[in-house]
Write a structure and sequence with these properties.
This protein has 280 residues and is of the alpha/beta class. The chain is 32% helix and 32% strand. It binds S-adenosylmethionine.
């Protein structure tokens, strides 16, 4: 018995689709690095089937109009070496001036706000540009503002909700349509000993609001789709931080949000990724 560790390289714009595909293919856990995505599967799935699945995904990417560049390599890891291999790959990371994100088996860093994250099968280890940007901007945009309530739409591992609670938001809610993300975020809330975060399965319509801060690190099409429900859930003069857009996609998202009553404040770029702040 053992596992296959796949290291997959693809274009930035195809990463989310790749992660959805690997999850659907029965991936046990994923780690996103700047250059690649590492995905683990049980060996009972058969290496030919797994490799075939990834190869055929190139066609799907091409047909969806996404960059279909994709390459991968894999190694077999015996049951005995599994924990050590998984642990070696997920390294602690400092984000901005105050946060460190680390897995539960690493020692906390003194002098920083430690966010302990066991990713399981969910997105959000702090290594992806969009998560890093959100962590830094949540802190920046909250500075000197009312910190009563915070909503994290598409919470993944719960990392943004956890950061919001730690920097002082009194009531925090994370929602996600993926039950595996709900499991992972609930586990991470416990790991960080926080008792003011509620996690719900569903999207923005699963909560009432309004909130002082709404963070949503989602793909642009989803942001546009949920604009009519997201906008009224933001408090007057609250801040909405929208991330997960690739350069060029932000105008459509801003227009959709403005049509629903929000007002554009600022745009932040990190490589090919863009985040925007709006208010109401
Ligand atoms: N918030 C984490 C972060 O910043 O790292 C995770 C963001 S991850 C890119 C997007 C998450 O949104 C995934 O966990 C996915 O399941 C979830 N999601 C996708 N569509 C959604 C929707 N319409 N409503 C709520 N969650 C959604």
């Amino acid at each position: 018995m053992g596992y296959y560790e796949f290291t997959v390289k693809t274009a930035d714009e195809s990463r989310d689709a790749l992660m959805q595909r690997t999850s659907a293919a029965g991936c046990l856990g994923m780690i996103e690095n700047e250059k690649d995505i590492i995905a683990y599967f049980r060996d009972t799935q058969g290496i030919n089937e797994l490799a075939e699945n990834l190869n055929s995904f190139k066609t799907i990417l091409r047909e969806s109009g996404l960059d279909s560049t994709l390459s991968f390599e894999y190694v077999f890891i015996s049951e005995r070496d599994w924990n050590e291999s998984w642990k070696k790959k997920f390294k602690p990371i400092d984000v901005g001036d105050i946060f460190s994100v680390l897995p539960p088996w690493e020692e906390k860093k003194s002098g920083r706000i430690n966010l302990v994250i066991d990713p399981g099968m969910a997105f959000g280890t702090g290594h992806h540009e969009t998560t890093k940007t959100c962590l830094m901007l949540i802190e920046k945009l909250s500075s000197g503002k009312k910190k009563e309530s915070f909503l994290d739409v598409g919470t993944g591992t719960g990392i943004l909700a956890i950061a919001a609670s730690v920097i002082g938001y009194k009531y925090v809610v994370g929602v996600d349509i993926d039950p595996l993300a709900v499991d992972a975020s609930l586990r991470n809330v416990k790991l960080n000993n926080l008792d003011n975060i509620a996690i719900r399965e569903g999207s923005v319509s699963a909560v009432e609001g309004p909130y002082d801060f709404i963070a949503a690190n989602l793909m642009s099409e989803i942001l546009i789709q949920i604009a009519p429900e997201l906008a009224p859930r933001l408090n007057r003069s609250g801040a909405a931080l929208l991330s997960g857009m690739l350069t060029g996609q932000e105008d459509g998202v801003i227009t959709a949000m403005e049509n629903c009553g929000l007002r554009f404040l600022e745009k932040f770029a990190d490589g090919r990724w863009v985040s925007v702040a709006l208010t109401r």
